[in-house]
Amino acid sequence: MDGDEGRALADRLARMTGGTPGPVVEEANGGRAVYFLVPIGSTSYRSWPDGVTRLTAGPNRVSYIPVPALGGLTWPLTWRYRPTTRDHLVHALLLRGALHPEEP
User: Fold this and answer.
1) Average pLDDT of span 31-35
2) pLDDT at residue 104 is higher than 60
3) Helix (H/G/I), strand (E/B), else coil: 57
4) What is the rounded CA–CA span in Å between residue 104 and residue 54?
5) Residue 13 in contact with residue 90, Cβ under 8 Å?
6) CA of residue 13 relative to chain centroid, distance
7) Are 54 and 43 a contacting pair, CB within 8 Å?
8) Considering the entire predicted model, what is its pTM?
């Protein structure tokens, strides 16, 4: 998700999770993309609104996202929310809920 909308989504998710939403990467240039690192396959078979781009791999398709270093400068990439443990990723259902806060 790009720009201020993606950053607001990351912060809303952080509030929902007590400040530990899982790893979120942001870019400082171009579209200023925000990347939410989710478990493999967790975005499949769910509806996602306009403005959300799922980067997935599959037959005849490869996707990857840029990931900044944990230490040192890696401009234009930075961690909006750093990884806390090896297996703690953004929960896709919580992410979807943060996208649609008005739905029950």
Assistant:
1) 93
2) no
3) coil
4) 23
5) yes
6) 10
7) yes
8) 0.88
pLDDT at residue 40 above 60?
yes
CA distance 77 to 92: 22
**pLDDT band, very low/low/confident/very high, at 64 (cuts 50, 70, 90):** confident
What distance in Å separates the CA atoms of residue 74 and residue 94, rounded to the nearest whole number?
28
Q: How far apart are CA 4 and CA 34, in angstroms?
A: 9
Residue 103 above 70 pLDDT?
no
N residues, the chain? 104
The alpha carbon of 83 is separated from its chain's Cα centroid by a whole number of angstroms, namely 12
Listed as own residue / partner, the contacts of 44-53 with beta carbons closer than 8 Å and 24 or more positions apart are 46/92, 46/96, 48/96, 48/99, 49/99, 49/100, 51/1, 51/2, 51/5, 52/1, 52/99, 53/1
Backbone φ, ψ for residue 86 (5° rounding): -60, -40
The alpha carbon of 21 is separated from its chain's Cα centroid by a whole number of angstroms, namely: 9
